[in-house]
Specification:
mainly alpha; 88 residues; single chain; 89% helix
């Protein structure tokens, strides 16, 4: 399951970055804006993965199984959104 989650995170980051690359190629955004967006995507993806790992660990201590899954979801969302908001 861990590898599947990482694959989804990487694919999502690649899609976001490729959309911004197209916008940059069309001169819709500047090089600075493209770099900022790419850094934001990379940082929030990494934070989400770390938060999911930490949340799963905490959830496992509280209630193995369901707690692990719930902790991973909550930890991933909270950490990804939290870091993403720092860029805004």
């Amino acid at each position: 399951m861990k590898n599947a989650n990482n694959t989804v995170r990487i694919a999502s980051a690649a899609i976001k970055t490729s959309r911004d690359a197209v916008r940059y190629a069309r001169d819709e955004i500047s090089g600075t804006e493209f770099a900022r967006r790419t850094a934001k995507t990379a940082a929030s993806t990494a934070a989400s993965a770390g938060g999911a790992w930490a949340g799963a660990a905490i959830g496992t201590v509280i209630c193995p199984g369901i707690g692990t899954a719930a902790g991973a979801v909550v930890g991933g969302i909270v950490s990804g959104l939290g870091l993403s908001s720092l860029f805004d």
